[in-house]
């Protein structure tokens, strides 16, 4: 592959396909958080009914376990996606990018939530630590643990881009394509899915936009924290136009916004 003197690739990946893969990866992470971590866990532990949307699970039943469930599921899923990526050297370029982005969205959401709740005293982990005293100490611990865990996730995802996708940090164009496009794609689909939510427009700002933009901001700057000794263990061919990914993302996005976005009532 030809590169310039600055180390940037002269070729580029297909933007539409990367955006499509990013949207699917983000929606999976969101559904795991709300659907498995909150809704399913609530129904299994006492809830009789509730409403799930892209930004929240709402029911009369509540518990600290259910509040913590979304984050814990994201962390577990992110680690499994990362393990899958490590063993995917013979997979197609689009599959490897999907696994990488799925790991990133899940790990950044999972680790970022600790820091977010500690700083703002809002969200799932505010519910978890609400009865714990002294409250200010638990908030500080959330901030410290969250910052450390998020930094660890940044290192994990950054080194994975180099090692398992085979994109060196010096290839600035491809690095931006594989990080910036997913970041803004996630924000767009998150906001679109939050607009029709049944609880209120405030969740668009408090949950969808702030959580997505904040939690995944590591994609914008992780390249600066990748250890210099990190080298590719394989190479990644260019992501070419894939109508299968684009069609899949389109169908899933319609369901995500028009159905789940409006809220779906679930019963035990």
Description:
This protein has one domain (15-31, 76-116, 130-267). The chain is 66% helix and 4% strand. With 268 residues, it is mainly alpha-helical. The protein is globular and about 55 Å long. A hairpin with a 4-residue loop joins strand 1 (49-52) and strand 2.
- Strands of the largest sheet, in order across it? 2-1-3
Helix share of residues?
Answer: 55-70%
* Form type: globular
- In the predicted model, the low-confidence regions spanning at least 5 consecutive residues are 1-9
What composes the largest sheet?
Answer: 3 strands, antiparallel
- Overall average residue pLDDT: 93
Strand residue percentage: under 5%
The value of Rg in angstroms is 19 Å
Count of domains:
1
> So how many helices?
9
Query: What order do the helices and strands follow?
Result: HEEHHHHHHHHE
Structural class: mainly alpha
Question: Termini, distance in Å?
Answer: 55 Å
Number of strands: 3
Keywords:
mainly alpha, disordered N terminus, 268 residues, 66% helix, 9 helices
What's the quick description here?
With 268 residues, the protein is mainly α. The protein has helices at residues 15-45, 64-86, 93-120, 124-129, 135-163, 172-194, 202-215, 218-221, 243-260; strands at 49-52, 57-58, 264-267.
